[in-house]
Structures are given as structure tokens and as C-alpha cells.
Amino acid sequence: MTHFRSAFLDLVENVRNAQFATRAARRARRELRISDVLDQIQKGGAKMRQSVRRRVATHDAGHAFVAAR
């Protein structure tokens, strides 16, 4: 796996952590806090199978490609 691909997959996981943190803040009926994101990272809440990570990364790369055009 190239360094770029590995970094992109890590980015996908971090985005998922942020999404989970946002949901937690919404459930608590308050604004998102940095502590929500840090808690989610510490929990490791966005662990995905390698095949799912790759599929999500490929999908999101398509969005980035289209936006860059």
C-alpha cells in the first residue's frame, strides 16, 4: 500500500470519528466540543474493516476529484 493511500484511509477514519462525535453532541442536545472528538478517538469508535475503509476512501476520493475539476 502506498503512503498516500494509507494516509487517505487514516483520514477517512478520522472523518468518521468526527461524525460519531457530532452525533454524540446532538444526542446531548448541545454544540460539538473538541472533547467529543477526542473522546471518540480514544474510544476508537470508527474502526472499519480494511475492505470497508478502502471502499469509503475510493468513494470520497471521487468527490474530491470532481470538486477539483
Shape: globular
Q: Provide the helix percentage.
A: over 70%
The class by helix and strand makeup works out as mainly alpha
Number of strands: 0
Spatial extent as radius of gyration: 14 Å
Catalogue the unreliable spans. none
Order of helices and strands: HHH
Q: What composes the largest sheet?
A: none
Mean pLDDT: 78
Structural domain count: 1
Distance between the termini: 26 Å
If helices are DSSP runs of H or I spanning 4 or more residues, what is the number of helices?
3
User: Per DSSP, what share of the residues sits in E-state strands of 2 or more residues?
Assistant: under 5%
Characterize the structure shown.
This protein is an all-alpha fold and 69 residues long. The chain has one domain. The chain has helices at residues 3-27, 34-43, 50-68. Helix 1 packs across helix 2 (34-43) and helix 1 (3-27) crosses helix 3 (50-68). It starts with a helix and ends with a helix. This is Peptidase M41 domain-containing protein.
